[in-house]
Write a structure and sequence with these properties.
heterodimer, A: about 450 residues, Four Helix Bundle (Hemerythrin (Met), subunit A), 434 Repressor (Amino-terminal Domain), eight-stranded mixed β-sheet, B: about 350 residues, alpha/beta, elongated
Chain lengths: ~450, ~350
């Protein structure tokens, strides 16, 4: 996600930081790189100009002492980028007993409304809400069926009517039943702002439903049209927030993200893949720090929370405190990494990992996921005793051959699992003095990542 | 499409012809003088004025201007911004400007014609970028004449949510109205209700849809549809595939496999005309993975900017065949290069 922009930003800050003297040529070349990268990320041209002018001005005009100046510029760049990404605003649910949250999604055709509705449903239900999905897209063929299939797959209650063509009637039909749910997510048909009949439809829906949140769904690869889109939708309805989809494509998102900031529509979430968990709360600060290769602990922790349920988490935390984990825990952790969207997605959130990552060939990360599958088979071929006490296998190596045969893998595969276990155990023992419940500080994690990065062999 | 650009390119050309061109300074006309002895002063030499070559010399001297590189530098930024604002990808915008620079710098131009010269140069560049689209129907007819028993197979691909399924329905409707029989292959076995969506379109248009369960190999579905077409003497097979991110290697491999198994006669990339710089990455990846033959741009009715057409056309060097311009079946337009240029005001 946005790798190219991140790289340029990193290079730019490095260049500034390493420069002995900031002369005009250097500043100009840095700004040129920056402009290119931002434009290629679809950030609006006007914004790019403003931003580069500001940096240029303070770099060349403001009289500050050498060292301070560099820091000043890096900070300025950081601040300005945070500013164009907009404010951090969370989608807050009304928690009162009789309060119902009605969240309506709208947007252009093919922006990903239906998929996002299901993702949001999953997100809120994992956080202990009673969620219902309502399909009011009566225009696109099989839109209701799509919602139905997604809802069934992830065990979410849904309300659709494949025969009725009037969305308002569908809503009224289910009015009573929906009262039981505290979060109601409403999927609507794709539309653009100059189709009058569709605009009228959404207005009358808005009147009947009285949504507590109206959210615009926008794809990340939308180019310079982003601003106009968000403006026009804002004119039709009072849009409280935006969700940006398809953030997992080559780069970009710049257009959509900055357009929202400009039109004062905060971005609540971004979606980053086809899996149901590929939904992330958007926080401009941590997004930027990820972009700059500084990792993003907050999102990582949030993600871990959304995947593992609380009971399991506590158990593991206790075990970690004792400084001893079993092989099962290793697999459990690795598996939950898989449901967080795979190793590929998490790596950008670990501070310091972006540097290590370059040393790892790409296909090895894919292999890693295959390995995990093998490990599961290996586990199944072990006795309970062995699982809780993997050291047994090392003491009596004939056990390794037995397990390998049973799982249909090579001995080396079993050994690699044991190695991983040892590594993780070591790490936890050395880190058990940390208070995990508070989350780790950026520095602590960076230290660990450094240590871990050296040891980690794929 | 291109509402903004049209107006602005005109303005830009005017501006550069007014200010940017370093016209050779018009000296005050010094008329040939002749000392009139009778009047005791200099008078214009009327005889010499009649001399044709002299007249022509002043005329040309006054009206020719050249645009210097320096002046162009000042204004090219502006043109670049214009193109970028209209969703032309950076790489492509730079290329256009470079070519324009070569075309007009240093040339002696007649002042009156600078504007139209620039426009002509731009037109030529864009004409070169856009490949002349071919006629799908001709291709189908050729194939029928060539191998009467084989259907003409069209494979559709693109990233998620660009409108592949809708486009297939539109093109099927288009072909059906032109008298070709069609069968659809529901090879989007991944997205929820992808199969149902295509089936409903099939019912409405009145063509057969070949489908299997979700999760089956999309290549197999395509293959089935082709066999069905062979048995029933159907002219065209249109294969719908799941939307896939061009960054996902496994999914690109899957489309490669579909392409290998079904051996399509035409591989169409379906892109959105609102996509920004990413459009070139998308088109590149698909072209690299399977080699596309043509492009369909959807949602052309959503935004006036049309830069994506330029970007994708330039990167792939493949023709744009259709534009999707609405929700109805007949909201599809065969891409016409001349009309496109005209809309650009060139």
């Amino acid at each position: 996600m946005l790798e190219k922009l991140g790289e340029v930003l990193r290079k730019a800050t490095d260049k500034i930081a390493n420069a002995i003297f900031l002369d005009k040529n250097l500043v100009n070349s840095i700004i040129k790189d920056l402009q290119r990268a931002l434009i290629e990320a679809d950030v609006s041209i006007v914004l790019v100009k403003e931003l580069s002018d500001k940096i240029k001005k303070s770099a060349l005009d403001e009289r500050l002492k050498g060292v301070e100046k560099k820091e000043h510029i890096i900070k300025l760049l950081h601040d300005e980028l945070t500013a164009i990404l907009g404010e951090h605003k969370q989608l807050e649910l009304k928690k009162g007993k009789k309060e119902q949250n009605r969240i309506m999604l709208l947007g252009l055709y093919g922006a990903g409304k239906t998929t996002t509705t299901a993702k949001l449903g999953n997100y809120f239900s994992k956080r202990g809400n009673k969620v219902a999905l309502v399909g009011l897209d009566t225009h696109r063929h099989a839109a209701a069926e799509q919602l139905q299939q997604l809802a069934e797959k992830h065990k979410l209650p849904y309300f659709i009517d494949t025969k009725e063509k009037n969305p308002v009637k569908i809503w009224k039909k289910y009015g009573k039943e929906l009262k039981e749910y505290n979060v109601v997510l409403i999927d609507t048909a794709g539309r653009h702002s100059f189709d009058k009949s569709l605009v009228n439809e959404i207005k009358s829906l808005d009147k009947t439903i009285k949504p507590t949140e109206t959210i615009l769904v926008m794809p990340a690869d939308i180019g310079q049209a982003a601003k106009k889109q968000s403006q026009e939708f804002k004119e039709i309805l009072d849009i409280l927030g935006v969700i940006i989809t398809r953030m997992d494509s080559t780069a970009k998102g710049g257009g959509a993200l900055t357009a929202c900031a400009e039109t004062k529509a905060p971005v609540y979430f971004i979606t980053t893949g086809e899996k149901i968990n590929d939904l992330e709360e958007f926080n401009p600060k941590s997004f930027l720090s990820r972009l700059l290769g500084m990792g993003d602990i907050e999102t990582l922790i949030e993600k871990i929370k959304s995947v593992t349920d609380e009971g399991k988490q506590k158990k593991i935390q206790e075990k970690i405190k004792d400084g001893n984990i079993s092989l099962e825990d290793v697999i459990e952790q690795v598996k939950s990494m898989g449901s967080m969207g795979g190793f590929d997605k998490i790596k950008s959130m670990i501070p310091g990992f972006s540097n290590v990552e370059k040393k790892i060939p790409e296909n090895l990360i894919e292999n890693q996921e295959e390995k995990i599958k093998k490990w599961e088979h290996i586990m199944k071929s072990m006795t309970k005793e062995e699982r809780e006490n993997p050291e047994l296998l090392e003491k009596q190596t004939s056990r390794i051959s037995r397990v390998a045969q049973g799982a249909g893998v090579h001995n080396s595969d079993v050994r690699s699992l044991l190695k991983q276990y040892k590594l993780l155990n070591d790490m936890i023992q050395s880190g058990s003095d940390l208070d995990m419940s508070q989350g780790m500080s950026q520095k602590q994690l960076q230290k660990l990542a450094k240590k871990f990065g050296k040891k980690m062999r794929f | 499409m291109f509402k903004f650009l049209k107006e602005k390119i005109g303005n830009w050309a005017k501006k550069i012809s007014k200010e940017g061109g370093k016209s050779e300074k018009v000296k005050e006309l010094e008329l040939p003088q002749k000392f009139e002895v009778g009047k005791q002063k200099f008078e214009p030499d009327l005889e010499k004025l009649k001399d044709k070559t002299f007249l022509e010399r002043i005329k040309t001297k006054v009206q020719r201007i050249t645009i210097s590189e320096k002046a162009f530098e000042v204004y090219n930024e502006e043109l670049k911004m214009l193109l970028l604002e209209n969703n032309v990808a950076l790489e492509v915008a730079e290329k256009v400007i470079e070519e324009l620079k070569e075309e007009i710098i240093g040339k002696k131009l007649l002042k009156k014609e600078v504007e139209s010269e620039i426009k002509d140069a731009l037109k030529k560049i864009i004409e070169n970028i856009l490949i002349e689209p071919f006629d799908i129907m001709e291709k189908i007819k050729e194939k029928i004449a060539d191998q009467p028993k084989e259907p003409y197979v069209i494979l559709f691909m693109g990233i998620n949510g660009t409108g592949k399924t809708t486009t297939i329905a539109k093109i099927t409707d288009f072909l059906k109205k032109k008298g070709f029989s069609c069968v659809l292959a529901a090879s989007d076995t991944f997205r929820a209700a992808g199969i149902e969506q295509l089936k409903k379109h099939g019912e409405k248009i009145g063509v057969k849809v070949i489908s299997q369960q979700y999760g089956t190999d999309p290549a197999a579905v395509g293959f089935d549809a082709i066999s069905y077409a062979k048995k029933n003497f159907i002219n065209c097979v249109l294969i719908d595939t799941a939307g896939r991110m061009h960054t996902s290697k496994n999914l690109l491999k899957e489309i490669e496999k579909i392409s290998k198994v079904c051996k399509p006669d035409l591989k169409l990339f379906v892109g959105e005309s609102i996509t920004g710089n990413d459009s070139i990455e998308q088109a590149k990846s698909f072209d690299w993975a399977v080699g596309i033959d043509g492009i369909v741009l959807t949602k052309a009715d959503v935004d006036e900017r049309g830069g994506t057409a330029l970007s994708v056309g330039y990167i792939t060097k493949k023709p744009i065949l259709f534009l999707g311009i609405g929700q109805e079946y007949n909201n599809i337009e065969v891409f016409d290069k001349k009309k496109f240029l005209k809309e650009l005001g060139l």
